[in-house]
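Slide 14.
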Amino acid sequence: MRSLFWRILASFWLAIALVAGLSILLGHMLNQDAWILSRHPGLNTLAEEWTRTYEEQGEDAAQGILEQRKHQYHVNVQVLNEAGDPVVRGTFPRRAAAFEARQNNDDRRLPWRRLTDEYTSPKTGETYLLIYRIPHPELDAWHRDSLLWPLSALAIALVVLTLFSLLVTLSITRPLSRLRGAVHELGQTTYQQNSLARLAARRDEFGVLAKDFNRMGSRLQSLIGSQRQLLRDVSHELRSPLARLRIALALAERATAEERERLWPRLTRECDRLEALISEILVLARVDADNASAEAVDLNALLANLQKDAQLACPEQTVKIHAEPQLSLKGWPTMIERAVDNLLRNAQRFNPAGQPIEVQAMRQGERIVLSVRDHGPGVDAEHLRQLGEPFYRAPGQTAPGHGLGLAIARRAAERHGGSLMLANHPQGGFIASLELPLVPGVTVQA
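Slide 15: predicted structure.
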């Protein structure tokens, strides 16, 4: 298994190694004549010091400086003027000069390294050519000493950078490991919201990701719980009509022809109830499963069509609509139509004859509120919270239905990022209000 930890750590180490290698390579490239002349303690100030001594104190004092440098640093020096003649005797023996001439000045075959440096006197303007010859052992020893501090500093830098890389790598891989564990728990439906509490407290990108993951996990757990509860409720609700159908079929098998004729309407009625229940369950499932793109919804036209359908379905009930002109939002028109239609049908079940069902639509800030009010008995206050849950019906209700109409309306509102508000009207009756944002999925506070 290729761990992200090792890949990130290897990337840091590779970058560090490349920087260190390039630094060493650059140092070697700079380790030429100019580098040695400017850094070697026996050469870096010799030209200036010799010229000043020669011009102020004469040849003997200047020769003494060269002798001192030879004794201290094993450096042989020749000084030539502009004509190429020796200015002082120097410290390079004649036999060594003859040997060098026989080797055709090939530094690779000589036991020393030869360097030249020109220096112009600021006092007299005379230019001198200084020829240095440093034995290779002396130069190698100086290289070792001169590179000791840079190599030590480089080693310390590598250790510090390694520790820093380790901390950075751990700061990346540890949160990922926690997120991986949370994903595994979520897949096993054992996710606990406080499992990422410490990670969510961070102020970096991982903290934001953990907060979003907590919200997603909480939402998924809620959906899973609601789906399980829905499955239990569906199985319970389907059991009753199926049991009645089975009893009716058993009676039909033993009945006479005349008795069967009386049983057929009962069987048909139970089949119709079962079909209506399954249809409502499918509508409830489609609200969550619909992945179509949102589009512009003309609420005035939608409400007008629903008013006609409601009058046809229940002619004795009057539906009055009070809507602001040119009301529109972006959403899923089928869902909104189903939601309002269910609210209207729910109102028709409880609204007394002779009293109109009032539908209002108005804009409030960045939301649109659709409300449906009936003049029925209303609902006891202790049962208002549970209204809208699938298959829940308030005690004492005798009107037909399966308790899915308000659940469908609530799911449609939540799909748009809105909400369904249920309450008893202060002047009597019951009022259900859909609060829908102008843009789906975004809840905007007024």
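Speaker note: The beta strands are 76-80, 112-120, 127-135, 295-298, 319-323, 328-331, 357-364, 367-374, 419-424, 430-437.
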